[in-house]
Amino acid sequence: MADAAVLHAPITRKVPGRFWIVPPAALLALLFFYPLVLIVQQAFTDDSGMANVAEFVRVLHARFFLNALINTITISVAATAGCLIVGLVLGLILAFVPFPGSGVIARLIDTFIALPTFLVTLAFTFLYGSAGMLNAGLMEIFSLQAPPVNFLYSTWGVVLAEVTVYSPFVLRPLLAAFSLVDRGQIEAASVLGARPFRIVRQVILPAAVPALIAGGSLCLLLTVNEFGIVLFIGAKGVITLPLLIYSKAIQESAYQVACIIAVINIALSLGLFGLYRFAAGRLGA
Amino acid sequence: MSVPAFTGSNVMDVDAAKIRGAGSNVHFDKVSVAYGAHVVLHPLTLDIAPGEILAMIGPSGSGKTTALRAVAGFVRPASGRIRIGATDVTDLPPYERGLGMVVQNYALFPHMRVEDNVAFGLRAQGADKALIGERVKDSLATVGMSGFAKRYPRELSGGQQQRVAIARALAVRPRVLLLDEPLSALDAQIRRNMVEEIAKLHRDLPGLTILYVTHDQTEALTLADKIAIMRDGRVSSHGPTAELYRRPPNRFTAEFLGRANLLPVTVAEGAAGPKGLAKARLGDAVLAGAARGEKPGDKTLLCIRPQHLSLTGDEEHTNRIVGTLKEVHWQGELTHLVLDVDGTPVRVSATRLPVSLPERGSAMPLFFAPGDTSLVPEDVRG
Ligand SMILES: Nc1ncnc2c1ncn2[C@@H]1O[C@H](COP(=O)(O)OP(=O)(O)OP(=O)(O)O)[C@@H](O)[C@H]1O
Ligand SMILES: [Mg+2]
């Protein structure tokens, strides 16, 4: 075997097309790395063009930045937790409770991924907004003067909208993982005396941990960077990092501040993306 | 690392004594199962006595697994009741039936160590820590896997995994052990050993009632006290293993269990004499065989096993037929011959051959003892 390989290697070996790395690399550099470098550079340059590191430190300690950071983390952690719970419950039902049409439901939920995020927010406004169906109905029934349900215009409104939009991102890998769970194991557990809840905890979930981590970290990543939903709901005082970048750059033309926040936002995203890749790798995706 | 046989030595403790008495009977009372309009189990009535091993055998798709899963609680009967001991379990969920089950692909929990797999059922049933520790030790010792407690299933061979699966099922002290083709995934050599070890396990736990589903007749013949032969969702025959083998009640049973030769004969004389032998005619030959109440003139089948046919006659082997030699297959300890007797292929398994065998195509006599034969009715269906 080894001899044959040595004999044939020089003949069959082809010069790899090294050249082909150039176009994608150039494109990547032009469209992605160059702007990234510009942003980082801008973060350390004041708006008159002078190098300025002090501003970076000042922004890091500023109230508006810390508030936005806390908001961003609160919302994305809460939304991710919500996605995990909703995804898990839906996934368990779809995968393990036999009912006709479960496949159709799963695919329907899947198509959610294809929809623009603000669409859901718009629907929410119709449903739960001040003039939405829920409030109108309640005001009608109980003869109220003001809309009784106002949660939509708060952190929790944003969280609810994000949970709705991003749960499919957890559901999808979960369903894939669930489909690989050996039904024989579930039956064995059942015969041994385990009730459904124990089976979920000790047999099904351990098999779904990588999927939960992958789906959860993807949700974290997407909710940290969510812009459309937060903007659309326009909850008073709910400013997240992307929204802050937007308002600093577009409304106040404070480019250095915007870039400083952007750098932090990017660092946060890359960290979460690393987590996602790690989990997805363990999942074999 | 080599695996010791099921030792069974630890099974002599107090707890094990409880299993001995703990066996329950399993009663199928007109149980039928249908998937939609497709009836896969026709009303089945069958009783497995406490401590009995019942082997359910039959061709693929005959409803064996379905019957077993109905006992486990995974298949809901369309009609009929299933009782285990005094309990009607028909409406109980699987986790309240107190059974053990082992299936072909082991179904061990991959993320748990062997000891946690074995402890699973006891934990689910809320047993206390000390008892769990003791039972896990006992169960693993019973299947000879004590040295593997800390391993994960993926670190075990197929045979070892199956031992753990058996230990896991035994740890909860089931009233009934359900085995669905437990050895099918193993290769022939290991399978033979495991059959012997399961037999030994049952000698150590004689109270344990076992429903053993298999399509392997050797496993059934080796292990079972009784055999139920399934065909198209019905029990084709059911009885003590040796009796079913010696006096098969129909053609299907005779052929499925031990591939018997069945010669179409016409009864000449009904049962007579102390041995209850009837006389039957096959062409010119008159043969004696164990009767089943046939009357002269009845057309029936004479059942004779390949290993009971001899190439030489003596005072015992008094029946004589003549066939044409078609094929000879030498297989080491056995030689298989195929002859044509009046248009019926007849298989012979001979341990000893005459110095010179006749040429293929030439006529050759075969001898057999009347006591080794029985008259078997043709199947009513099929
Ligand atoms: N979930 C199901 N839905 C529809 N039909 C089924 C289902 N499970 C089994 N069947 C049918 O029921 C019949 C009996 O199946 P069963 O699994 O009991 O056979 P078996 O005797 O165990 O066969 P094998 O030796 O191949 O395991 C078969 O015709 C099979 O196609
Ligand atoms: Mg089967």
TrEMBL record, chain A:
Membrane-crossing residue ranges in chain numbering: 20-44, 64-97, 109-131, 151-171, 203-223, 229-246, 258-279
One biological process term in Gene Ontology: transmembrane transport
Annotated Gene Ontology cellular component terms: plasma membrane
Record key words, sorted: Cell inner membrane, Cell membrane, Membrane, Transmembrane, Transmembrane helix, Transport
CDD domains from the UniProt entry: TM_PBP2
UniProt-listed InterPro entries: AminoethylPonate_ABC_perm-PhnU, MetI-like, MetI-like_sf
Top-level taxonomic group: Bacteria
Matching PROSITE patterns: ABC_TM1 (PS50928)
Chief subcellular location: membrane
Residue ranges of every copy of the ABC transmembrane type-1 domain listed in the record: 69-276
Keyword Cell division recorded: no
Signal peptide residues on this chain, from the entry's feature table: none
A family per Pfam: BPD_transp_1
Compartments, as annotated in UniProt: Cell inner membrane; Cell membrane
Keyword Ion transport attributed: no
Membrane-topology descriptor: Multi-pass membrane protein
Family assignment from sequence similarity: Belongs to the binding-protein-dependent transport system permease family.
The protein's name: Putative 2-aminoethylphosphonate transport system permease protein PhnU
Classification of source organism: Bacteria, Pseudomonadati, Pseudomonadota, Alphaproteobacteria, Hyphomicrobiales
From TrEMBL, chain B:
Gene Ontology biological process terms, A to Z: quaternary ammonium group transport
Residue span, ABC transporter domain: 26-257
Keyword Glycoprotein on entry: no
A molecular-function term among this protein's GO annotations: ATP hydrolysis activity
Keyword hit for Magnesium: no
Protein origin, superkingdom: Bacteria
Keywords from the named record: ATP-binding, Nucleotide-binding, Transport
SMART domains: AAA (SM00382)
Any one annotated GO CC term: ATP-binding cassette (ABC) transporter complex
Family: Belongs to the ABC transporter superfamily.
Annotated protein name in UniProt: Putative 2-aminoethylphosphonate import ATP-binding protein PhnT
Source species of the chain: Mesorhizobium plurifarium
Source lineage: Bacteria, Pseudomonadati, Pseudomonadota, Alphaproteobacteria, Hyphomicrobiales
Gene transcribed to yield this protein: phnT
